Amino acid sequence: MKKKFIPKPVGNMTRYLNYTYPNSFFTFLDENKVLSCSTLSSGLTVATEQRNSPNSCVGIFIDAGSRYESSLEYGVMHFFEHICFKGTENRSKSTLEKEMTATGAKFRCFTTREMVGYYAECLNECVPMVVDILSDCVFYNSFQCSELEIQKKIVYSEMLEHEEDTKGIVFDYLHQAAFQGTPLSNSILGPSYNLHNLKNTTVARHIDKMFAEPRTKFVCVGGITHDQMEELGNTYLSKSKKNTCVGSSPYRYTGSELIYRNDSMGIAHIALAVEGPPFHHEDHLKLDLATAVIGSWDRSQGGGQNNTSHLACFSAGSGFCSHLESFNIAYKDCGLWGAYFVVNQLDVDDMVFKLQREWIKLCTMMTDSELLRAKMQVKSNLLAKTENVVGACLDIATSVFYSGCLANIHRRFTELDRITLNEVKDTCNKYLYDKCPTVAAVGATECLPSYVRTRAAMNWLRV
């Protein structure tokens, strides 16, 4: 009888740094999962993960977003979300709704600064019908004028709701400050005057320019083979359209601050970030580990001062901070790494000082046990994200979109295990130590340190 591995409780977790996973563990994770990726003659990229599952998630992901929009087009791709499933050249709105209901599928879409996605979760036998509907809605939309006017009112209401989302506003400010003067600073919603002047011809022209096969990723996760997806791609997504060369404007990072002071709020919402590596860069994964070391915390969580993160323990014990969230946002050619927190009006200075101190400690004083916990957390998050077909589909789409390749769980875990403590320290020193930060804040920011002082705190005087 095979002896079961049961780790003994020890005070020093570094004993497990060199622990080798049993083969059965990866066999269980990758069992009956076949990853495939190919490019059709039309330029369409097809990526699949075949697994034993009664349902599938299939999606069309395109290289488009607010980064590729002109000053008169800001908000076009987000607006297209609202009219995407409202009628096509081949199906009226009522017919389309009946067919979508008949499949029993859940249709969804999203827009980011660099990518748009239209996907659906359905039973395996409904995948061809769902692909037909998705391709018809995305590539052959009717752009009805009456529907555009209805959706304008809905989008305007969404803009008003966004103004109440303080966290969303802070991250918009963060991009505006960090990438000022470049399209990457634009919000996906766009300005209200663009929405008011938006015409169906403007939307149709932008869609026709951006939605070409070489810019499109066709992704499916579930009980469908790769050959079947290639056949569906050739049938429904090959428009034989000449590709339009569309490039993204180069980014430019600027260390700066953008602050909206409103003392009536009583609290301050602050984001502090530095320039990070792009998604496909080898340093991106190392900064993911640094993000896990800083950690996240919220007053509603349990644990109090028993959190593994030093900053979370400080937040829970001092009562300064009610919410803490570290982030690592990556794009094609750049990124933002930092933390967002909500703090009391009179404690802003102390919280900023403590956060920067923890950042400098990442460069000089990180321990093996902290790195081990970070690796475990990143692996756990990866497993949670890919356990269902929808999460796995979005994960594959992101990987193919930014890096052009696929990697199974075993390979990604191995890459994590190979990262050493010194490599993480060197990476943090490269992107954090003595670098110009970007500050975005909304609320009671009276006690927020000046930018000169914040910049000076990005290093320690060492002898």
From TrEMBL:
Which terms does the UniProt entry file under GO BP? protein processing involved in protein targeting to mitochondrion
Q: Does the keyword Transmembrane apply?
A: no
**Please, which domain of life does this record's source organism belong to?**
Eukaryota
User: What are the Peptidase M16 N-terminal domain coordinates in residue numbering?
Assistant: 46-191
Record keyword NADP present: no
Q: Which PANTHER family does the protein's record reference?
A: GH01077P (PTHR11851:SF149), METALLOPROTEASE (PTHR11851)
Q: What is this protein called?
A: Peptidase M16 N-terminal domain-containing protein
